Amino acid sequence: MPSEKTKPRSANKTSKATSSMRILFADDETHLQTLMRDALTRRGYNVTVCPDGLTAVAALEKESFDCLIVDIDMPGMTGIEVIERARELRPEIDAVVMTGKPSQETAIAALRSHAFDYLTKPCPLADIARMLERVAAHRDIKRQLAALQHRLHRAEGDSQLVGSGNAMQSVQKLIEKVGPTESTVLIRGETGCGKELVARAVHANSLRADKPLVAINCGALPENLIESELFGHCRGAFTGADAARTGLLEVAHGGTVFLDEIGELPLAVQAKLLRVLETGDIRRLGDNQTVQVDARIICATHRNLEQMVEEGTFREDLMFRINTFELTVPPLRQRTEDIAVLAEHLLRRHRSDGVSGQLFHPDTLAALVAHTWPGNVRELANVIEHAAILCDELPIAPEHLPSRFGERQLRKEIREADPMTLKEMEMLAIQRSLQRHGGDKKIAAEELGVSLKTLYNKLNAAEERRAAG
Ligand SMILES: Nc1ncnc2c1ncn2[C@@H]1O[C@H](COP(=O)(O)OP(=O)(O)OP(=O)(O)O)[C@@H](O)[C@H]1O
């Protein structure tokens, strides 16, 4: 007999959360098929009823369900086998065993197949309804988690480390070497150069990759909060601690902790952290008990820790504890060969058009490569975001870059140049503005704050000076 599907008749007796739930019920007892179909349909569920395991698997192959309720003893295929097949076909499904012959063996088999619940027949309808409420709540949590993961992914961008130049290749090789070890890693590099991304890559290359990576920015929290954030606290541990809180080091149990900006950690917290790193024991604020935590530590800093040790602002013993393996991410200006591919990668965060065409005008790329990027890849990401907003149709032209971008570059050129006259400085500003705007004198004049006529006069005068030698 094929599976039978019914649409909900009324959702009166069930909450809004459960009403749209799709249930697959498989049992060879015909009176139970009728009972479940009628009772659950009346309660507003979408019910599909199957007389055996094979039909249930066929239904699972065709469509998705929120909940699978199966009898254990069925002809052709046992309920546990159906659940195992459902795990492969629909990993998100919550499977419930309903058996008339409860036993330790079937209960253990249900547990091992990660069944959501185990009910025994005859099972009152009220119990089934309560179980379905819990399935609905579980489904909502899974959806919220998926939405949060999606938002996180959007906020963080993807974790792909882009760059195939020699410098990034060396970093990549070190990541692959140190990743699978349990060593503590210290990542050094200027701000915005990709230290967090490198930390994520180390974690992804580790045996803990399927466990959480908990990132903590030690510089972003005030001194009085960082301790409770790292180690957690008991209720009433300090004024305002209305509820107990698990520290992030504990949350990362089994996985990795990324301590970003470790150089910003106050000295008192440094001492506590060192104890945790040495013993693996965490004591929540206000607690007498300790908890054993197994977390791999990755740290990052843009500060000179050796100098901080000399100045007495960073503990030497902590530095030796965290720098077992060091990885330095070079600043962007030292890997200009990666700029074009990084720019394309970052543009893809905002634009999906121009798939086959050119994404950047050659003058834009030239301007990006010429820049010295004090804010590294983060600055590049911001410049690209700005350009992606301004540009209606790809490729990105120089005029889509932020105007301040060229100014900063000009200021730097002037700072670093040999002494020059005011006239030469003026010409440098004019040339850079024209370069930025693809030779468009009208836009350049506006940017420089002079009339078009004045710009022509200045260019002609410069030409005459050059001709005169
Ligand atoms: N090699 C790379 N490939 C792709 N994206 C990168 C790369 N390096 C950095 N980014 C991007 O640049 C931005 C800054 O990177 P990240 O936060 O890792 O830098 P950071 O060195 O940790 O910064 P800070 O010193 O401020 O903590 C992020 O959006 C990141 O995705």
From TrEMBL:
PROSITE patterns (UniProt xref): RESPONSE_REGULATORY (PS50110), SIGMA54_INTERACT_2 (PS00676), SIGMA54_INTERACT_3 (PS00688), SIGMA54_INTERACT_4 (PS50045)
Protein name: Transcriptional regulatory protein ZraR
Signal sequence annotation: none
The UniProt record lists the keyword DNA repair: no
Chain coiled-coil ranges: none
Membrane spanning stretches: none
PTM-bearing positions, type 4-aspartylphosphate: 71
InterPro entries, alphabetized: AAA+_ATPase, AAA_lid_NorR, CheY-like_superfamily, Homeodomain-like_sf, HTH_Fis, P-loop_NTPase, Sig_transdc_resp-reg_receiver, Sigma_54_int
Keyword annotations of the record: ATP-binding, DNA-binding, Nucleotide-binding, Phosphoprotein, Transcription, Transcription regulation
Single GO MF annotation: sequence-specific DNA binding
GO biological process: phosphorelay signal transduction system; regulation of DNA-templated transcription
Domain Response regulatory: 22-136
